[in-house]
Amino acid sequence: MSIYRSTVWFVKGLKEYTKQGYLNASRSFRPNDLDVDVTGKSFMITGANSGIGKCTALAIAKKGGIVHMVCRDSIRGEDARKEITDTTGNQNVFLHLLDMSKPKDIAKFAADFETSGKNLDVLINNAGCMVIIRELTDDGLEKNFATNTLGAHVLTTSLLSVLNKAEKPRVILVTSGGMLVQKLDLKDLQFEKMYPFDGTMAYAQNKRQQVIMTEQYAKKYPNIHCSCMHPGWADTPAVRMSMPSFHAKMKDRLRTPEQGADTLLWLAISDAALQQPSGLFFQDRTSVSKHLPLAWSKSTKQEDEQLMASLDELSKQYSTLS
């Protein structure tokens, strides 16, 4: 079944996820959807110093938004912040240093953000990693899972009280079409049984988890519009570093970072996005299926709820502030 999923997914990707796929899809875009003034609205973007996150931060800053860049690296983060402020003239662009693989640090950051009295209208969980060799964090958590899944969950749930103060709050998770090759596996969340370890499949499993998280957030937090999206195959530093052979073979077909960020920006600022039901998975401004045909990748309601219970338990275990 995994061979079937991978084959169907790659054929689909060649048609839809490439630069040409974006150009084809964009013919049906409504250009006025992004004609939005977001002056005074506050956006938090994790992994905002490069690639899709940086493109989104730049676009929002151009439109007058307050941008909170959450980055791990101080030098690259500050360079990106300065570039955005110099390019846009918007001085309301702020850098926050945070490692999204460290739950306790995330919880403290969120608590400090709330105490500061700052507003937050939109949270964009964009930061991610694809560690090819199984690696543990200082907490003993597998690094892909800690960053992509648990980190996003801790940040989102820790900022709920701030988001609920906004008029029309939104939470967006940047996932990947790669999740289509995976079915939720509750028995090995941290890939202890995966042998040999496959970082690409671990990443895809995390992205499947994020899609389910989005669905569950939509049910549990009806006042917040929740969505997730696939940027397509974009030419970003993360792709070049984590998937060098894929990048080398596909580089002429890859989307620009701006094309990859288009749907993320649309979900973050457009009124049109809010007309869509909460909890959906988007590709090129359109909600699309979360499963390939005949792929047997759907999980049960009980399995989805168990994932969230496991994340809540791990959050409590690893992020409780002393």
UniProtKB/TrEMBL annotation:
Keywords: Oxidoreductase
Enzyme superclass (EC): oxidoreductase
Species this protein is from: Mytilus galloprovincialis
Domain of life: Eukaryota
Enzyme Commission number, as recorded: 1.1.-.-
InterPro entries: NAD(P)-bd_dom_sf (IPR036291), SDR_fam (IPR002347), SDR_member_12 (IPR052992)
Official protein name in the record: Dehydrogenase/reductase SDR family member 12
Listed Gene3D superfamilies: NAD(P)-binding Rossmann-like Domain
PANTHER family: DEHYDROGENASE/REDUCTASE SDR FAMILY MEMBER 12, DEHYDROGENASE_REDUCTASE SDR FAMILY MEMBER 12
Entry keyword annotation includes Protease: no
GO MF term set: oxidoreductase activity
